[in-house]
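I'll show a sample.
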Amino acid sequence: MLDKLNTTPLEGIRIVSFGEVLFDIIDNEPHLGGAPLNFAWYASQMGAEVALLSAVGNDLLGNRALNTIQNSQIEPLIMRSELPTGVANVCSDGSFKIARGKAWENISVPLSVGPEVQLLYFGSLAQVSEENRSSLMTLLDRKPRSVLVDLNLRDDCYTNQTVEDCLYYATILKVNENEWNVVSEITGIDDPETLMRQKHLNTMAVTKGENGATLYSATGGIEFKTNEIDLIDHTGAGDAFSAVLAIGILVNAPPAQALAASCKAGSIVASKKGALVKLPNDILHAYQQIMN
């Protein structure tokens, strides 16, 4: 449970995370995750008011997912579906295959998602279905102040048009090195700062695993590399990076400070088992001086 972690609440900062809730099946054991849930988990730890908009099945996995979310500080805007709860089958080499025809492919938007939204988060995977694309347009029509797209390209689960749409709506873009190569190939743009100008992005982050990340903003590009860690499980590390970066942007932290905190958060999650872990106090309080 995370009921005592928001020691520095971010008053007035409301985030909506849209997309898949699913279980990674590893050695026949289900582990709760999905990038939008992981992102919401870490953004709420940082003190933001976070709503997760998704769908799960009327099944045991759906009950398990809801129980975990309801015992966190995430506001669950979770529909129950006649379709089964989502799963991804993980192979021994770390590759995985996402099962289709699951609850997260049919997410509807409630009449209200609460007060004004400062940031809307989504990725490419949730856009595989027409219903989800329609729901996403409904959320975008409500004019969130910022839109963070964590591309999260999954094999056979995106098209070139999906990538172009993500670039059109994003104000903040996060990709890993492989995803940047795909974006570059689709757009014909091989320089992140040129992409930012042409796609009207405010911020762009390119993560590089153990080699840290590069953050591009109005002040140019900066790099950060964390100390070496004992890699246990990289699942969720990129989502923790995105969440801490999002909070840094929303509180107007200096880019170098936001990048350092985000990289450290990702490294900490990668050194733990599972996608949903507790961030240490130095990360939770990374922006406290700015807010005081």
Remarks:
- The CA atoms of residues 23 and 32 lie 4 Å apart.
- The two ends are 27 Å apart (CA to CA).
